[in-house]
C-alpha cells in the first residue's frame, strides 16, 4: 500500500473531485500535470493482470495506475491523489498516493448490452451483462478467459480467481457476469472503441445455467443442409454435431462439405487442410446475413468416406442464394484477369466472368503456372469449380456471388477465345489508326512538297519563257543589226581607194569591235536559250544555235534529227547543247569549213549528237583552250552526264565530234519534247 503524507510546511492536499468532473477536465485541458484527488470504491483489482485498478464513485468509474509493490483490494474505499491524463480511449489517473478510508459494497450494476458496451457508454463502470458462453479456457492457473455471445456482439470476460471452474462445463451455458467494462483496443485516429472486455473480479460474479444435458458429441450428425433449419425449442446456445470434408481454407474460415451441401465453419480450424475429414460441434451464427458455424471444436472423422462431386449449375441458379457454401461448377466468358501478389509471395488471382445474368468473379489463391495463365485468355469460355459464396445487400437479400477456387485445376478452358477478341481488336484498331496517321502525315508532307515543286516549276517555266523571249528578241533585233552593220563596214572598207589608208584602218577597227560585240551577244543568246530547254526541243535549239553561229559566215549548215522514242532529261540536254555549241564554235574559228553536218539521234536507251565539218581537221585545233571551252570543256561536260566523247578526223578531210549518252529508264516513257 502506497501511503504519502504531506510534511510540515508543505501545500495541503487538493480538494476531492468527482470522477466525471475529472474526466471532462482531462479531455478539455489535455491534463496540465496538476495534482487532483478522488474518493471512491475499488470495483476491480488483480495484481496478476498489472499494476492498475478501477475506482468508481457516484458519477462514474476510472482506471488508476500505481507504482507501489502492493495494490488495493476489491471493495476498498480509497482516497487517491495523482495526475489525470487522456489515455488511449478514456482518461485515466496516474496515482502518486492513495490510502484506505474504509470498506463498501458494490454499487447497483446497470445492464450493459453488447452494443452499449462497444460504444463506450459504461466505460470503467461496474455493470452486468448476459449471453451464451461460446469458448472458455485458462490463460494461467487463476485466470479464465470466456467469450460471451451477447445479442449481436461477442464480449470477452476476464475472470480472476477462477481456478475452481471447469471450462468444458461452461461452454453453451447461459451466463450472467458482473464486472468492470474495460477498453481493450481502439482506433487512435478516430477514437472509436473496437474491442471491450468485462473484468470479473472473482468466480462468484459469474453465474451460469448449464443447459446441455447430453454432450453434443453423443448426438447424431446433423446434415449440413439442415443445420440452420428451424428446430422446436432451439436457442443460440445450442451446439450442433456435424461431419464433412474440408474443401478449402481461407483465413480463419474453412469450407466444409458432406456430399450434399456445404457450410462455412469458424473457430479452432488451425492446421486444417483440403481433404481432411472432420467431426465437429459448434454454434449456429450469422455473418453478413449468411450462415456460419462458429466456435467449432474439431476432431478427426473416422466415419465412412464422403463422395464429393461439384454441381454443374447455371449462374442464374446461384444468384438466388440457395447454394451458399456449396461445391459448384459454373461457366462464363472471361472479361478480365487481375493478379495481386500477397505479402507471403503467393499470387491472388481474380477472374471476372460474364454470364447472361451479369458479371461474377472467381478467386484463386493457390499456385498456378504461366502456361495455365496463358490459356485463360480474354473472351475464352471458362468453367470454374469451387465454393459458391453468396454476397448480400444491406437488407440481407442475395445480390451476387463469387467462386472460391481451391486450386488451379478448378479452372478449365471450355472454348478457346476467338482470334478477333476485344483486346486484339483494340490492338488492331490502334495499329490501323497509327498507319492512317502515318499516311496522313506522309500525304501532308508530300502535298507540301508537291506544292513547293509546282511553285518552283511554275517559277522556272516563267523564267525560262522570259529568257526564251529575250533570246529571240536579241537574235531577231540586236544580233541581226550588228551582223548588218558588220557587212556595211566591210563593204565601205572595200570601196575606199588605197590612199585613204587611215580611214580604212579606222573602219577595220570598227568592224573588229562590232564583231566582238556580235560574239558577246551571240554567247548571251546561247546562255539564255540553254536555260529554256525545258520549253524547247533539243533539236530545234541546236538548229537555231547553228544558224546563229554560222550566220553571215558563208558556211552551209545541214541538220538531221531521228527520233525513236525516249525523253532527254534537262541536265543531259543542257550539256549536249553546250558540247554541240563548242564543236560548232571550234569549226567556225579554226576549221575554215564550208559545210557543217549536225545529226541528233534519240532512242529509248540513249541519245547521240554528231557535229562534222569539211575543214582543215585536227591538225589546226589549238592546244591551249584558255578563254574557250575547247576539248577540255567538252570532256568535262561529257563526264558530268556519263557520256562517251569522240573527237576524230573524218574521211575526206575535216573533223567529227560525236557524243553518246545513256538515258535513265524512268525517263524513256515518252518521246523527246
Descriptive report:
GO terms for molecular function: kinase activity. By secondary structure, the chain is α+β, with helices and mostly antiparallel strands. It folds into six domains: 19-103, Nucleic acid-binding proteins (OB fold (Dihydrolipoamide Acetyltransferase, E2P)); 124-209, OB fold (Dihydrolipoamide Acetyltransferase, E2P) (Beta Barrel); 213-308, Beta Barrel (OB fold (Dihydrolipoamide Acetyltransferase, E2P)); 310-417, OB fold (Dihydrolipoamide Acetyltransferase, E2P) (Beta Barrel); 419-536; 537-673, Histidine kinase-like ATPase, C-terminal domain (Heat Shock Protein 90), CATH 3.30.565. Helices cover 27% and strands 35% of the residues. It is built from ten helices and 28 strands. The chain has helices at residues 19-29, 114-118, 167-170, 315-318, 370-375, 422-495, 501-530, 538-549, 570-591, 630-640; strands spanning 36-45, 52-56, 61-65, 76-85, 92-103, 126-138, 144-150, 153-159, 174-187, 192-200, 206-209, 239-250, 253-257, 262-267, 277-287, 290-300, 311-312, 327-341, 347-355, 358-364, 381-392, 398-405, 411-415, 556-563, 595-602, 606-613, 644-649, 655-662. The strands form five sheets. The protein has a five-stranded mixed beta barrel with strand order 1-2-3-5-4. A five-stranded mixed β-barrel has the order 6-7-8-10-9. Helix 6 packs antiparallel against helix 7, helix 8 (538-549) runs parallel beside helix 9 (570-591) and helix 9 (570-591) packs antiparallel against helix 10 (630-640). It is elongated and about 175 Å long. It starts with 18 loop residues before the first helix and ends in an 11-residue tail after the last strand.
